[in-house]
Amino acid sequence: MASGEVASSATAKYLQIAADLAAQIKSGALAPGAIVPSEAELIQRYGVASGTVRKAVAELRTAQLIETYHGRGSFVRSRPPVQRKSADRFRRTHRQAGKAAYLAEAEASGGVPSVTVLFVGPTAAPPEIADRLGLPAGTQVLARKRRYFRDGVPTEEATSYLPWDVVKDIPEVFAENPGGGGIYARLEEHGHSLAEFTESVRARLATKPETKALTLSPGAPVIHLVRDAITTDGRVVEVCDTIMAADQFVLDYRFPARD
Amino acid sequence: MASGEVASSATAKYLQIAADLAAQIKSGALAPGAIVPSEAELIQRYGVASGTVRKAVAELRTAQLIETYHGRGSFVRSRPPVQRKSADRFRRTHRQAGKAAYLAEAEASGGVPSVTVLFVGPTAAPPEIADRLGLPAGTQVLARKRRYFRDGVPTEEATSYLPWDVVKDIPEVFAENPGGGGIYARLEEHGHSLAEFTESVRARLATKPETKALTLSPGAPVIHLVRDAITTDGRVVEVCDTIMAADQFVLDYRFPARD
């Protein structure tokens, strides 16, 4: 919901029409896949000029509620239920039950998850990552790059970076499948007991390679999330850099009203 | 940093050029406001075709590192340091010191903050808000809508919604300035002791009214953040709906690796 809705009496006509159509889509009166009434129909229905109708329809396109196909008209987008990401996905009990975070989370969202491992091997730490790991930029670290899918659609790409001295004695994390509970379970088995995670969340437009990797439309937004895994000794033993299709996720956080 | 950087040997030429120029911008070799070398200069420097150079420059524009002005060329954007938002901004000690959350946070970012109150008064709760407050959609609640600026530039709009039975005996929250520590301080003084906050984070393209309110370019992304303030009794006493210019903020969270 736009914060502009508070003072609706002062809202431009085209925005009122867009809001009316959006309400029909959200209520299901205009169902996923349904064709949006034509420009001529909307002109008649709302008694406005064609420019006003066109601006209203453009608003719905921006809100990703409809898709327009040249010569065929506009259609209500099928909106897959978004996947919620909460801090709970890193609960130790999930790891002990043998579930990696993504699977634990995707189970709750109703989609069928899958993962493709794109790369596992040594790489030079990029500046921001090195900084978070407390290493000079370019230091060799282990990179693990994966692409995640829901119902066969790519939704995010994540690259984990781990310090070499941490992983060199943990052969499982060099494998495509690091085993039950994922790399956090392996780190903890090898004495790197995790105390907390930090996440930094940004949003921006997708770059060309991201557009391709996640099959996004040009100009689509992504969420860029960087997570540090921190041990009880205060060491960052993993930085995970994730690019997510913005329309596929809601990130949920919970924190105390502390002193 | 794009996650596509891991396997750089397989990267298309135009992306290598874009990465090289981005590195110069990030290092300061190409300073804010500096003109980006012309197409002819880049063709000669990198020994590539004009189409390749044009794609590289388009990539930098998407990454919001440069701005192109017709007939004048491309310039390195002056990047105001982004404002970091951490859960710490809600510390009770900040409230007791008389600081509202935004001011506590903005102080750390180096910018000069200011606030305009756009609306304070009764409104019908929109569906998502009503749902979070545990009220039927359309129930009358108190809305407080503000626009926040940093160094005079609008960065976010936030609307707080509070249940009528909670606020009717707290005259201060009907005032433009609810006093030291903001509305959370007033709620706590009136017995609504806050236990925790939840935040839901999404990203999408700005709607037309948001583009106007925050003076964004068409097609710019926004972060949409919805926060619930929850009392020790488990009641949601405020929902705050915020639209933020995506290029102005980093949201920081911290959570335990709990069982």
From TrEMBL, chains A, B:
<dbReference type="InterPro" id="IPR050679">
    <property type="entry name" value="Bact_HTH_transcr_reg"/>
</dbReference>
<dbReference type="InterPro" id="IPR011663">
    <property type="entry name" value="UTRA"/>
</dbReference>
<keyword id="KW-0805">Transcription regulation</keyword>
<feature type="domain" description="HTH gntR-type">
    <location>
        <begin position="11"/>
        <end position="79"/>
    </location>
</feature>
<dbReference type="InterPro" id="IPR000524">
    <property type="entry name" value="Tscrpt_reg_HTH_GntR"/>
</dbReference>
<dbReference type="Pfam" id="PF07702">
    <property type="entry name" value="UTRA"/>
</dbReference>
<keyword id="KW-0238">DNA-binding</keyword>
<dbReference type="InterPro" id="IPR028978">
    <property type="entry name" value="Chorismate_lyase_/UTRA_dom_sf"/>
</dbReference>
<dbReference type="InterPro" id="IPR036388">
    <property type="entry name" value="WH-like_DNA-bd_sf"/>
</dbReference>
<protein>
    <submittedName>
        <fullName>GntR family transcriptional regulator</fullName>
    </submittedName>
</protein>
<dbReference type="GO" id="GO:0003677">
    <property type="term" value="F:DNA binding"/>
</dbReference>
<dbReference type="InterPro" id="IPR036390">
    <property type="entry name" value="WH_DNA-bd_sf"/>
</dbReference>
<keyword id="KW-0804">Transcription</keyword>
<dbReference type="Pfam" id="PF00392">
    <property type="entry name" value="GntR"/>
</dbReference>
<dbReference type="GO" id="GO:0045892">
    <property type="term" value="P:negative regulation of DNA-templated transcription"/>
</dbReference>
<dbReference type="GO" id="GO:0003700">
    <property type="term" value="F:DNA-binding transcription factor activity"/>
</dbReference>
